[in-house]
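Bench notes, afternoon.
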Amino acid sequence: MHLAYPAVLAALLFCTGLYGVLARRNAILVLMSVELMLNAVNLNLVAFDVWLRDALHSGQALTLFTIAVAAAEIGIGLAIVLAVHRNRGSSDIDRLRDTAETDEAEAVPDGDSDDPAGTGNGTEDQATAPAGKAKKAEATA
């Protein structure tokens, strides 16, 4: 068997997976495309292992390792997607950009305090922090 056949097939699989990662907006389809890319790598590993006639079968051992890592990645990825879908109602990747909640708005001083360093340790900041959290929770809901 020529090495070109599985190499071309693996290149086509990898390019299809890369297109899926770059063009899709659904997180589950992106995870499936990543799996397609990993399977293309596995195909290359096994093809080169057979072509080189390796006595240790290192390509097959690396393939098993890659399959184990891919299974763990899918398990964690699906758990994250399900958690995001429960909270947001959608698994659209474009809507996930605002998931990082920062507390920068609560730590920024309002400029009226006598604190020249701007650490924001005044009593008015501590008193208004719960109200800021409530407004943020309403905005994300």
